[in-house]
Amino acid sequence: MCSFSDYDFAPACQMIKSAGDILIAGHVSPDGDTLGSTLGLSLGLQRLGKRPRVVFQDDVPGYLQFLPGVDAILKPAAVDFTPQLVILVDCAALHRTGDGWVEKYLPQTPLLILDHHALRDDIPAVSIIDGKLAATAELIYWLLQALEVPMELDIARCLYTALCTDTGGFRFTNTRTHTFEIAAKLKAQGINLEEMRIQLFESRRLMNVKLMGHAMANICQSEDKKLVWSMIDTKIKKLWGAADSDTEGIAGQMMLVEGVKVGVFLDERVDADGNYVVKVSFRGRDGYNVGKLAAQFGGGGHYAASGCTIPGSLDEVWPCVIEAALLLVSETEVKTEGNL
Q1: Strand, helix or coil at 200?
Q2: What domain of life does the native source organism fall in (predicted)?
Q3: Is 154 left (phi over 0), alpha (psi -120 to 50) or beta?
Q4: Mean pLDDT, all residues of the chain
């Protein structure tokens, strides 16, 4: 079990205390952990009289729009101040912040990295990274304690969201005893569990539900039934008048199939330059490292949940992705059998 005393927060606290204008950034395709952690940290730093601004390259998903502070999130082009400190949250690799926008502030600006992903860049920074944690929000919770920031409801809602999403509602194997302990202390601030359940797991746009149905109706399965995948192309989205954001949450549904070990969802999109790209989401059972799979294609994420974006059309991309996924399943099975 991890605890507050396992980490040296003193250097991070000193950096924060020495700065006024602070830029806090998270990764592209923001999820509950990177958003909840950045917003919770920002609210906490505001209580210290700091001037933090949260910056994301990509839009906030619809199901997370309820989080306190979302309306104040900036896009990189809208940053109109010179930061005295840059903090990367849930994002230890610079390329995960987007198209190089954060590099212009480095190395002349001090950098603090807070993350629970193993993937990181070798860049000058004060880093607190622990891959054993369920969510970066756990680090943020302890950092705010070290800074003596009083916990309050809005901060608690942000951090609880981060914990809840990265543990699948406290169902995934990354959930530890200390995760429950932190969640209990956040809940004590007055969190409405009905709101959390509905916002995070039950409130979906009708088009999102329709696309989910389409993906499930066209699901494919490997011969050994341990790999399943599905895909949605731009044609069906255009035909139905759907947005790219309407595919949120579909990846997790791949794991509903009996006996599945790895699930893959491929979502064809058109980027800002008019080129085809495929956003690929991987999900895996305990023992199947899909984070390694995403890294093969320039992406990242967790051991059991990861993703990447690959240039090219769906027809060009999906065969090589599924081939790599099949190889991962096969290698994992051989390794498992060898350990018996």
Answers
A1: helix
A2: Bacteria
A3: alpha
A4: 93
